């Protein structure tokens, strides 16, 4: 009888111990699981802070690269405008009265003749070439001067483009002597009646004011580091778009629960529980609004002329909006760390 009581007490003791161990194990397992989940969320929120700066860096890099490319184009347009003005003045103030006085025009002028306006422009371009590492030329499919016919495949492609868009600028690239060049083209048009009459005289009827007579070719050195130059010319927002998607998906996951990218290549996905804390949710709403403001700033980052007020203001907005987004993201980390 006494042995039975001892056995019963022993059994009860062991059962209580087992129950305590089960409860303790459950509590520990639950705590570990919660800690693991907390760490996962904290890591995700920490990455958000990094992404705010990565997005800004990518956007600003794109804007600067496009502006550098645009700056070369603007320089060409200024030079193109100068050529048009110079030739118009030479034609109107020199050629017109000289021809009226019986002076002849020639492709290869001697002391008794004057150069054609296009010939005079060629002389100026050749002098410019000697003073600069850039090169300017005016060429055509059927030029009066046979030496000024098309030379490169891009010449024909540029003419086709400019015939469809006379006010446009066609661009290609090439490598020469270990340097990367940009090659720009603009339309060379008959801007004066004197231009038309001269070309009609030598090339036959059918030419009207405003017609494209050929193309102006501008070879502008862009970079000695060819690979770097090509990277700048081909700049895009792919990296920014990828980071933007990761930030957006992660923010939505901590707000409502759901999948989010585990890596920066979006190849692996994880799952986050919704953060239920009221203060954290309020901060998430603030981040959403600031994220929208930041993306609008990036969209306004157009490739304007280098140094223009619009470009400077756009870059300033991207920096300020990304810094504010980083601050709010950091606040959310602090809030969650306090409740975790």
**Low confidence ranges:** 27-37
Q: Whole-number radius of gyration? A: 36 Å
Helix content: 55-70%
In whole angstroms, the N-to-C terminal distance is: 55 Å
Q: Which sheet architecture does the biggest sheet show?
A: 4 strands, antiparallel
> What sort of overall outline do the alpha carbons produce when their principal axes are compared?
rod-shaped
Which CATH first-tier class of the largest domain would you pick? Alpha Beta
Instruction: Return the string of H and E elements.
Output: HEEHEHEEHEHHEEHH
The count of DSSP E runs of length 2 or more, i.e. the number of strands, is 8
> What is the fold-level CATH name, i.e. the topology of the largest domain?
Beta-Lactamase
CATH architecture of the largest domain: 2-Layer Sandwich
Output the number of helix runs: 8
Mean pLDDT: 83
- Helix- and strand-based class? alpha+beta
Strand content: 5-15%
Structure description:
With 340 residues, this protein is an alpha+beta fold. The protein has two domains: 132 residues, Up-down Bundle (de novo design (two linked rop proteins)); 165 residues, Beta-Lactamase, CATH 3.30.450. Helices cover 64% and strands 14% of the residues. The protein is built from eight helices and eight strands; from the N terminus they run αββαβαββαβααββαα. It has a four-stranded antiparallel β-sheet with strand order 3-6-5-4, sandwiched between helices. Strands 1-2 form a two-stranded parallel sheet. It is rod-shaped, with a radius of gyration of 36 Å. The two termini are 55 Å apart.
């Amino acid at each position: 009888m006494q042995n039975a009581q001892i056995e019963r007490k022993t059994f009860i003791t062991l059962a209580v111990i087992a129950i305590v161990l089960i409860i303790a194990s459950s509590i520990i397992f639950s705590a570990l699981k919660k800690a693991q989940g907390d760490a996962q969320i904290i890591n995700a929120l920490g990455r958000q802070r990094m992404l705010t700066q990565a997005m800004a860096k990518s956007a600003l890099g794109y804007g600067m690269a496009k502006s550098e490319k645009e700056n070369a184009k603007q320089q060409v347009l200024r030079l193109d405008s100068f050529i048009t003005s110079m030739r118009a003045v030479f034609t109107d103030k020199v050629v017109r009265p000289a021809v009226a006085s019986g002076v002849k025009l020639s492709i290869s002028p001697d002391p008794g003749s004057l150069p054609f306006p296009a010939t005079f422009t060629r002389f100026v371009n050749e002098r410019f070439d000697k003073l600069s590492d850039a090169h300017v030329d005016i060429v055509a499919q059927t030029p009066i001067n046979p030496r000024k016919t098309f030379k490169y495949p891009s010449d024909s492609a540029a003419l086709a483009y400019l015939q469809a868009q006379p006010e446009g600028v066609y661009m290609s690239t090439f490598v020469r002597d270990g340097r990367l060049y940009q090659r720009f083209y603009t339309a060379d048009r008959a801007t004066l009646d004197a231009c038309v009459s001269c070309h009609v005289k030598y090339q036959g009827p059918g030419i009207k004011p405003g017609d494209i007579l050929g193309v102006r070719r501008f070879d502008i050195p862009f970079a000695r580091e060819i690979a770097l130059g090509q990277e700048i010319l081909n700049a895009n927002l792919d990296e920014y778009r990828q980071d933007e998607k990761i930030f957006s998906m992660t923010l939505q996951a901590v707000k409502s629960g759901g999948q989010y990218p585990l890596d920066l290549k979006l190849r692996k996905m994880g799952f986050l529980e919704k953060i239920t804390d009221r203060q954290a949710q309020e901060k998430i709403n603030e981040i959403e609004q600031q994220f929208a403001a930041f993306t609008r700033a990036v969209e306004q980052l157009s490739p304007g002329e280098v140094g223009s007020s619009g470009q400077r203001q756009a870059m300033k907005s991207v920096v300020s909006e990304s810094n504010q987004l980083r601050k709010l993201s950091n606040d959310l980390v602090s809030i969650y760390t306090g409740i975790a």
